[in-house]
Amino acid sequence: MNNRGEIDVRQIRQIIEVCRSGGIGRAARELGISQPALSRSIARIEDQLGAVLFERAGDGAKPTPFANYIISRAVPPMESIATIAREVRMMAKGDSGRLRVGMGPLIRQLIFLPTVTEILGKFPNLSLKARVGSTPDILKALTTRAIDVAISSSEYSELDGTLDQDHSFVRTDLVTLKLSFFVRKGHKILKSGKPCQIEELLDYPMVGIGMTRHQRAFFPAKLNARQRQNLGAYQVDDYELVRHIILNSDAIGYGPSQVFLEDIKKKRIFFANPNLEILHHCVALALPETWLFPTVRNFVEIAKKVSMRLKEPDRQA
Prior knowledge:
Blueprint: H1 9-21, H2 24-31, H3 35-49, E1 54-57, E2 60-63, H4 65-93, E3 96-103, H5 105-122, E4 125-132, H6 135-143, E5 149-153, H7 156-162, E6 170-184, H8 198-201, E7 206-208, H9 213-216, H10 225-231, E8 234-235, H11 239-247, E9 252-256, H12 261-265, E10 269-271, E11 278-286, H13 294-308
Parallel strand pairs: 3-4, 3-5, 7-8, 7-9
Antiparallel strand pairs: 1-2, 5-11, 6-9, 6-10, 6-11
Helix pairs in contact: 1-2, 1-4, 2-3, 5-13
């Protein structure tokens, strides 16, 4: 403790232990120091603060309101420090600890599910927490350290523009997906037998997982009222819902072909035009200090392997 009355972590631990043990002697044994040394330390703290922390009675020590106030303010951060130290030791081993992952709906379905299956099989003692949200929400969670790693699907230019310039990130490119347009079997747009054009897509409501600026730029800049309404008709947060709407309406869905593999194979869903596609980049991001943990690096490595195994169906109208 310095001459301004500030209390260091060691002395706070002593006050906490005296309160917990109910006596100087018992607290000294728990702390591994002599009783006289602890008594002198508590006396110095009281003298420096100008406040009595304990009322002595024999071997007992009853905390005063001043001591209780210190305990109420100090215990939560002290426990937090202990938790952080314990988690760092566990995470440094690489086979246990806590991992918090954030991702978008597309990543959840195509990359996260097979990745989590593999990583939990490899590291069964790992505590895993997952969060699904939009790219801005996930990146905010990353910068505020609410998550350890973000696996996001977004265009490079848009992603870079979203990042907090006060933070630097370790970035791992995972895979580039092709977003295509899909319709149900028997859809009117397939009857001509010719690939449809972009303008023809806008004759029908569109359904997908949001629409980024890059995706919007794929369409003509000038649209009439009906086309604008169709372009933003159905914005959902789950590809199973996108699939359901495609199969049960005239809506045109957009997304990666991998989420419709079974329907394409069984000829329930078709490409509206196999040549119309938007590139969509998937990346993993982590703060530099978080990247030091083997759990984060192991997770990203597995996610990259899973991403490389993604296959597209043969494209046919």
